[in-house]
Amino acid sequence: MANSRCFPAKEYDVEAPLLTDHVDEAVLQRLKEEYWRRKFNLRYSRQRRLMFNLFLFSMIICLILFIVLLSRIMAIFKLLVDIMPLFFMHPQRSVQYSPTNPSALGQEDSILT
User: Is the pTM here over 0.70, yes or no?
Assistant: First the structure.
């Protein structure tokens, strides 16, 4: 019989006569999935595995985006920390901290005297 190749004889009586010639496609599909799941000792169906893989993929993407966002925020904070002393310094001593004038580092003595 054709059914003997699809389903194992120990679980389904393939030799029993069918009461009708109509086979419901949903039931047949479920039986086929159950057969292959048991044959390969699979715990979850293909749809569940695909959904789980999709979930893992989206979590990895979210983690990467979170790391990128965190690095951008840290770069902004580093910029603010670098700029912040310029707002609190005395105007005469601000020449010492000028990033465009590296030769002004030793001039604080001449400015104060």
Answer: no
